[in-house]
Amino acid sequence: MNLVACSVVDNREITPGNFLLTLKVPRGFSRPEPGQFVHLRVSPEVEPLLRRPYSLEGFFERGNLRAVRIYYSVVGRGSKVLSAQPKGQRLDLIGPLGLGFSPRPRRVPILVAGGRGVAPLLFFARKLRQKKRPFIFLFGARGARELYGVREIKGGRLHLATDDGSVGYHGSVLTLLEREWESGEHTPLTAEVFTCGPHGLLHGIAELARANGIRCEASLEGPMACAVGACRGCPVPLRAGAVENGGRYPAMCLEGPVMDATIVDWDRLP
Amino acid sequence: MTRPAPSLDVRIGSLALRNPVLVASGIIGYGAEYERLVDLSAIGGIVTKTVTRRARAGNPPPRVVETPSGMLNSIGIENPGLEGFLETKVPILSQLPCAVIVSVEGEDVREFCELVEGVSGSGVAHAIEVNISCPNVGPHGMRYSTDADMAREVMTAIRPLTSLPLIAKLTPNVTRIADIAVACESCGADAVSLVNTFVGMAVDSVTRKPILGTVLGGLSGPAIKPLALAKTWEVVQAVDIPVIGMGGITHPRDALEFLLVGSTAVQVGTALFANPSLPEDCVNEIETYLRRSDLASIGDLIGALEVPVAPRARRGSAS
Fold first, then answer.
1. Structural domain contains residue A103
2. Chain B interface mutation, best of A45, A49, A253, highest count of B Cβ atoms under 10 Å
3. Among candidates B194, B197, B191, B106, which has minimal Cα distance to B143?
């Protein structure tokens, strides 16, 4: 983890409101793991006041060039300001930060993405492919336009779901996961779930995982001030009785953003 | 001809600081969290996250929300408690290359006494900041700094327990902050630091809910700087002990403003989250300013504000 200067290589609106940002980073930026994030200053100005945490969609090295990619939606002040940063703009970031996905050996990873939550899972799928590990990728979004990155998912079995039925299964990606599990192909000893998306979806996936004893890691999202564990501003509520609870709130920035989904108290997580 | 470098050292009671720039409590944890981002050897010191008598899990989420030019927080002093602090944090703090000011907060006078004795006995603290102004820990949090009698009670009780400099941290959520500062001074405080955060609130009109888990929180950031400067100015007029000013320092020149108003030292807070080099930048700015102004020492800068007319009385004298 370091504070490094970076510059905008590309910042493109690929579908209305959804952007793909490529940032050139120096060699001082260490190789990130899928699921890790960076704390990005979204503008050289003082406003917005705080950095914004973004999961990485990818990390690329060519010769001496290193770049990270962030897939984001314009949802508030920070992302709006970020979307206006032109090519060549100098910014800085702290990272890579947090804990990424940690697949167990000899288990089939089932990746479940909801909407823009696909970002860290695309990074993860690319890495699994490099390691020649087979995986299953279930991707749900509102419509076909929001299925960012589907053509990049290679080396795994892919199933799509859309709320409007424009592509793939007409309904929730949670149903795809239920069907996948009910196919009888998997057991908790042969497969595990990695997910990222809206917290409502993650809640449903966590319930399914808990009911079936499936190991399940979810990448969480939330506001952060310092992102290095100092300010304690990003607490994750745990279920009463969950392992290691003891009434404490792990910091999302340090003990997440990827966490065991079955110990999170999703009702109390904003 | 090269002049000698201007002197930046200041004194807070018996504590000598190599320069007047500190990091505020609740910002940098216990120092180690920011080890790779903030050069602690370049600044005067840090104030630790507040230590309470018993461990605290902190408040339910959300705990932070950004507001225009500011941040509202409701952390609730998540910390390992005095025993946990002594066991796990003191070894870390003893390695830091800067002054360590330990912040403490008690639910009652007895707890304040136990904390001051415990922290003092640890040997790691160069001074103790007495947090009598936290807005986020329930009714007891601000009680001791919104009532001069209660401030006197706690300061009187802890003063005999330590020879370390005692810094009373004050809340701005009062009508006359100078009265509280004077009360602390009269009971042996070596300094006062101000301001803690202003009580604030953020509302989501879509969900019709408060954004913070505890409804109310404390506002910090550049939005409060003019308010903080005014409170600092008010207190500087009223006490003879050093005043440590803070509230919204975002640009290095903001630190100069607090010094000009009469602060002996300053604390950098929220803006450090965006710019970890801000404390060091403040030190450099002060040094550059002294050189440019041909001043030999920071003492020539502290309180050097040139007020064109006599400062008006506290209230009601003009409109």
1. no
2. A49
3. B106
